[in-house]
From TrEMBL:
This is Glutamyl-tRNA synthetase class Ic. Coiled coil: none annotated. GO terms for molecular function: ATP binding; glutamate-tRNA ligase activity. Pfam families: tRNA-synt_1c. PANTHER family: GLUTAMATE--TRNA LIGASE, GLUTAMYL-Q TRNA(ASP) SYNTHETASE. The keyword Repeat does not apply. The keyword Nucleotide-binding applies. It comes from the Bacteria. Residues 7-256 form the Glutamyl/glutaminyl-tRNA synthetase class Ib catalytic domain. Keywords: Aminoacyl-tRNA synthetase, ATP-binding, Ligase, Metal-binding, Nucleotide-binding, Protein biosynthesis, Zinc.
Length: 294
């Protein structure tokens, strides 16, 4: 049997912080424990914010953590044609439709929320006549492509099972509920894909068998499991770890201005100290259930 494959897949749209470091080291710990591979993927579909200097800084931070990765490293921005082809497969089956609504229009029309807290799309463009939609696209009107959740679930009527594993390796199962995402965006107005479509495609393409990521992405797994079924892709096992939080209890995030690893390095903090703080030994690693930033 082939060895298990893990991946660390950050978006290089800002400097890495302690939360990224923990997730990367935890992936490495699982890979070591299970005698698997750990690969790096750059999820840089936002080509405006994911700048070359941020990618270079991120790679430098990962080397400082002692995490060398296999080359070449996959950059999603170089594979837009692959994601467009996956979207075309869904379009040919009538499972996606173009959406011309603005964020403001969606917020004004929706009273429900998706698992991320964003306004749940009310389906405004779902019933547009094909001729009208084609004319608006031909005229150059900006549009996204949304999954028709009703049609998608009809195409996958059976239960969708998500397998999760814990730090001891025990496997549990639960049923996915992708309906709570509504008609999710699969291709953005400014990019021929979305996070959801690209990550599902790449995990399958790269042979990823175990996905280790933060609990903030746990709910997204329901939608990913549906896309895997629709596209005929294998489903990895998942482990969603606890998030590092700041002094106020908020999760560490680039958008919140969390202290980057570069600042910690400048203050003299070493990678060995971080490993020791989180219980990661040089060769044997173990997850700790409760974690706070320095």
């Amino acid at each position: 049997m082939s060895p298990p494959v893990f991946r660390f897949a950050p978006s290089p749209n800002g400097r890495l912080h302690l939360g990224h470091a923990y997730s990367a080291l935890l992936n490495a710990a699982f890979a070591d424990r299970m005698q698997g591979r750990l690969i790096l993927r750059l999820e840089d579909i936002d080509i405006t914010r994911c700048r070359p200097e941020l990618i270079a800084a991120m790679l430098d931070d990962l080397r400082w953590l002692g995490l060398p990765f296999e080359e070449p490293v996959r950059r999603q921005s170089a594979h837009f044609a692959e994601y467009a082809a996956a979207l075309d497969r869904l379009r040919a089956r009538g499972l996606v439709y173009p959406c011309f609504c603005s964020r403001r229009e969606i917020a004004a029309a929706s009273h429900a929320r998706d698992p991320d807290g964003a306004p749940l799309y009310p389906g405004t463009c779902r019933s547009l006549a094909a001729a009208e939609a084609e004319a608006r696209i031909a005229a150059g009107e900006p549009h996204a492509w949304r999954l028709d959740m009703g049609q998608a679930r009809a195409a996958c009527p059976g239960p969708l099972v998500i397998e999760s594993f814990d730090e001891a390796g025990a496997v549990t199962q639960r049923l996915a509920a992708p309906e709570r995402w509504g008609d999710a965006v699969l291709a953005r107005k400014d990019a021929p894909t979305s996070y959801h479509l690209a990550v599902v495609h790449d995990d399958a393409l790269q042979g990823v068998t175990h996905v280790v990521r933060g609990r903030d992405l746990d709910a997204a797994t329901d939608l990913h499991r549906l896309l895997q079924a629709l596209l005929g892709l294998p489903a990895p096992r998942y482990h969603h770890h606890a998030l590092l939080v700041d002094a106020e209890g908020g999760k560490l995030a680039k958008s919140r201005g969390s202290e980057p690893l570069a600042a910690l390095r400048a203050r003299g903090v070493t990678a060995a100290e971080l490993r020791a703080q989180w219980g990661f030994a040089a060769e044997a690693h173990a997850e700790r259930p409760e974690k706070r930033s320095r």
